[in-house]
Design brief:
By secondary structure, this protein is an alpha/beta fold. The chain has one domain: P-loop containing nucleotide triphosphate hydrolases (Rossmann fold), CATH 3.40.50. It has 9 helices and 10 strands. It has a 6-stranded mixed β-sheet. α3 crosses α4 and α3 runs parallel beside α5. The longest helix is centred in the middle third of the chain and has 14 residues. It binds adenosine-5'-triphosphate and magnesium ion. Adenosine-5'-triphosphate binds next to α1.
Amino acid sequence: MIALEGLSFSYPDGTKAIDHISLTITEGSSVGIVGANGAGKSTLVNHLNGYYLPREGSISIGGILVCKKHLDRIHKMVGLLFQNPDDQLFTARLYDDVAFGPENLGINKADIAILVEEVLRELNLWELREKPPAHLSQGQKRFASFATVLVMKPEVIIMDEPTADLDPKNRRKLINLVNGLGITKITVSHDLDFIWDTCQRVCIMNRGRIVADGPAKDILGNRDLLEANSLELPLRLQG
Ligand SMILES: Nc1ncnc2c1ncn2[C@@H]1O[C@H](COP(=O)(O)OP(=O)(O)OP(=O)(O)O)[C@@H](O)[C@H]1O
Ligand SMILES: [Mg+2]
């Protein structure tokens, strides 16, 4: 479903954030990406829906090359939840933010109303639909970002720190929601228990490279490997 071939990326100030990454992800799988602050996780996943366009190396999703020409198709296929929800929400009313994507696809108004109501109700946001997103709490913004992505019914969902700001009940709700999504999923998180609960496969990133890649339970159960990469065992394994 997703194929990265020799992807490298440097920011304009010269910081090399991605260093020659090759990776394939099969359709329907759930992959966690973990690593220390600054390891390059967000930079990597922000490439996967064309937010950053590959300059060195290539990415293809469902056989379509990620490039300027294919951006509409890529955006329709891949939903990306930014690490910071403020990057996702930009209109004056929550309802409009959720309707924005379907409107861009040219879906008719009546169908958009059904789609938006369905997703807002599912995420317990219906009562907040008239609020400016800027006035939502952090956790509400996180779910609002989810709504803007899920309403598009993507084939691939990329989540960057999805549990940041969530209370325990909503974190549990998110685990159930993610596990109920039968699509290809990529999750970046420092919440290794969340990764344990939702991913079959885990990649560790360190200084722009993937330094380990394997079954979630092997990677997340390997204390030495985690500690060598500034990580710790998931809380449930700490005894
Ligand atoms: N706009 C930018 N300009 C220059 N350097 C940047 C920019 N954004 C990120 N970087 C640098 O790129 C590297 C990777 O950053 P990135 O945000 O991808 O890390 P991350 O693994 O997502 O970290 P975190 O866990 O803190 O979210 C870091 O060294 C960071 O300082
Ligand atoms: Mg990040």
